[in-house]
Amino acid sequence: MTSRQRTVIIFKSESESSEVYAETLEKHDFNPVFVPTLSFGFKNLVELRQKLQTPDKYAGIIFTSPRCVEAVAEALSLGPLPGGWKLLHNYAVGEVTHNMALSSLDQLFTHGKQAGNARALGEYIVETFDGSRDLPLLLPCGNLATDTLLSKLAENGFALDACEVYNTLCHPELAERIEHALEVFADSLEFLAFFSPSGVNCAQEYFKSRSLSMDKWKLVAIGPSTRRALEGLGLKVYCTAERPTVEHLVKVLLNPQDSRERLLKERERLAALESSN
User: Fold this and answer.
1) Segment 111-139 mean pLDDT
2) Which residues of 151-164 are buried (b: 16+ CB within 10 A; e: fewer)?
3) Residue 270 confidence (pLDDT) above 90
């Protein structure tokens, strides 16, 4: 790390995308430190496997995170994904989830990868879906999934079959990794970047137990639901990335004012909609 670099703690488990994150952030003089925040445990995989064997009963499948793709791959560990799914309307939030479905599920193509969150994907599905709504969309999800997507699709006449396939827990090494980062990078630490509401809650548990306030650093939210989770704790959000990509993260770190102006316009738009109803 050079003296010019500004450290940003990435509250996200290291994955295949971590190297890209590190290289891109370092090019812009940021020093990324990854802190694994969440751990996951699969469940109900027998039930999920049974559903996956009958693609003719569904209009398609929706993946809201890489973990959902992993659950499907785990459920199919003894066999391939039935080919009928490739003929249906399949969707994914974000490029990482889209690419994982391609690589893990027999080249299953999903639409909507440009959507950075469940709300945006719901809007995309409503606007572009051209099939029959008589059959449900299969939705493998976690125990902390919000009803944002379910509500958006239900109010537009879609049926969904939600199957809870994993539990989300705070990572067992979270406290140790945060303490190490705070000690080693105390002089250069400037940003804390969060990728999910559950990640925010787990980190907050640590800081609260140490009587530390996260407001000491600049808080960066990846996506609107993460921003709302931080604000719900009474914390000030420095900037918000629209989508969970390193390009969007770097963009708001370098130009936080753009993020604030975009948020202001969105809030003005929502206020105008409420007043017109």
Assistant:
1) 93
2) ebbeeeebebebbb
3) no
